């Protein structure tokens, strides 16, 4: 939307700070009233009763503004891309961990927990080193060696791993077809968990997926897969719900999904939260309406995690720190200024969503 960005910036600049002031400020702005005097928002990691994470990429840690904002507010990080197969596995079968090591070093330097992402993913099954052994007897050994090499490198440094990402079909009818399932059958999932445990005896091992809040059938299949892994004795240690939300996410859907996922008793990771403010719904065209809806959804997600028993609150991870860091405003998904999906604006100022997060978790420590 041309020109939409300015109203967002001015709204963020002048309003929406302070516990519980966020939504009131947005309401006021929506009614054209001047915002209340913003109160200081404490660092998010200081008020949350669980680790507060963000995705981090190497180009972001080179930006001093990003690094300072991350260090002040976040206590966990997930490499956005640098530990993925397409980045670490070279065509000749060798490894390039340079970028991943930089991210791990940034975690150590900022005192943040490191969450590894992701060992096995249907969307990363084009690696030449695997494609050329597709269907060969040595495939499983190469699969094991890959997981041992990557998870083993961060043994004792990664607190957890997304071992298998997005295994479930979008319609909930079984599992996605991929190089891994074609060579190893559906047990590629359990095998990955076994090899990850062999690589790192201490990491919490996650099954991670998305659209679990708006596709109940997919969530049911995801939970059945989790139950089957547990029944097989696979070292499944947690469930990750990416939580990529939109203006159309119905109120209550996130809360219901988190409660449903938590019924297996495993730690829950809200693992990639963002709330796209793009909407072609006329009723949601005003920036204030969108920021308010975003804040309500972020507050609901934070509240849902905080409502779990302490042992099930693994972490709340946003998929980026500032709006401009989001994958949603990079081609092919979008362009700068077209979306405002995160908790901090482009200048690093807390948005209503940040205040709603703080209000939702305050007094839950
Ligand atoms: C995305 C990254 O943010 C992009 O930079 C990259 O180009 C593609 O992958 N679910 C996931 C993440 O599990 O790994 C994806 O991250 C976003 C969707």
Can I get a quick summary?
This protein has a single domain (13-361), classed as Glycosidases (TIM Barrel), CATH 3.20.20.
Walk me through what this model shows.
This protein is an alpha/beta fold and 365 residues long. The protein has a single domain (13-361), classed as Glycosidases (TIM Barrel, Alpha-Beta Barrel), CATH 3.20.20. It is built from 15 helices and 9 strands. It has helices spanning 5-14, 21-30, 44-47, 58-61, 64-73, 85-88, 98-110, 128-131, 139-153, 179-184, 188-199, 216-232, 253-261, 287-306, 352-361; strands at residues 52-56, 76-79, 113-121, 158-165, 204-209, 238-241, 244-245, 268-275, 313-318. Strands 1-2-3-4-5-6-8-9 form an 8-stranded parallel beta barrel, surrounded by 4 helices. α2 (21-30) packs antiparallel against α15, α9 (139-153) packs across α11 and α14 (287-306) runs parallel beside α15 (352-361). The radius of gyration is 20 Å and the shape is globular. Mean pLDDT is 91; it is low at 1-6, 13-22 and 34-38. Bound molecules: (3S,4R)-3-hydroxy-2-oxopiperidin-4-yl beta-D-xylopyranoside. (3S,4R)-3-hydroxy-2-oxopiperidin-4-yl beta-D-xylopyranoside binds at residues 80-81, 165, 210, 242, 272, 327. The site of (3S,4R)-3-hydroxy-2-oxopiperidin-4-yl beta-D-xylopyranoside has 7 residues, from loops.
């Amino acid at each position: 939307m041309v020109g939409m960005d300015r109203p967002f910036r001015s709204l963020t600049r002048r309003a929406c700070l302070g516990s519980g002031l966020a939504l009131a400020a947005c309401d006021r702005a929506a009614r054209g009233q001047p915002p209340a005097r913003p109160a200081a928002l404490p660092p998010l990691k200081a008020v949350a009763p669980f680790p507060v994470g963000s995705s981090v990429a190497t180009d972001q840690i080179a930006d001093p503004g990003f690094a300072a904002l991350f260090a002040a507010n976040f206590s966990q990080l997930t490499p956005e891309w640098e530990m993925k197969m397409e980045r670490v596995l070279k065509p000749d079968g060798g490894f390039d961990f340079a970028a991943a090591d930089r991210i791990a070093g940034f975690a150590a330097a900022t005192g943040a927990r490191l969450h590894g992402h992701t060992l096995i993913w249907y969307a990363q099954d084009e690696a030449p080193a695997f494609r050329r052994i597709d269907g060969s007897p040595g495939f499983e050994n190469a699969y094991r060696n890959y997981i041992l090499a990557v998870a083993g490198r961060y043994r004792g440094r990664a607190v957890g791993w997304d071992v298998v990402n997005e295994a479930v079909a979008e319609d909930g009818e079984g599992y996605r077809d991929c190089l891994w399932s074609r060579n190893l059958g559906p047990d590629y999932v359990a095998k990955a968990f076994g090899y990850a445990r062999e690589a790192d005896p201490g990491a919490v091992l996650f099954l991670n997926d998305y659209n679990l809040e708006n596709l109940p059938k997919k969530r049911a299949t995801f939970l059945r897969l989790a139950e089957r892994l547990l029944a097989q004795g696979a070292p499944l240690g947690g469930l990750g719900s990416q939580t990529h939300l939109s203006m159309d996410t119905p109120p209550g859907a996130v809360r219901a999904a988190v409660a449903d996922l938590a019924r297996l008793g495993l730690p829950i990771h809200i693992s990639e939260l963002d709330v796209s403010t793009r909407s072609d719904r006329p009723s949601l065209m005003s920036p204030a309406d969108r920021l308010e809806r975003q804040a309500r959804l972020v507050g609901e997600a934070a509240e849902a995690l905080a409502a779990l028993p302490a042992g099930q609150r693994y972490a709340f991870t946003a998929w980026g720190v500032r709006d401009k860091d989001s994958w949603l405003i990079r081609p092919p998904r979008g362009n700068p200024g077209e979306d405002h999906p995160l908790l901090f604006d482009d200048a690093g100022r807390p948005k209503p969503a940040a205040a709603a997060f703080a209000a939702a978790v305050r007094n839950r420590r």
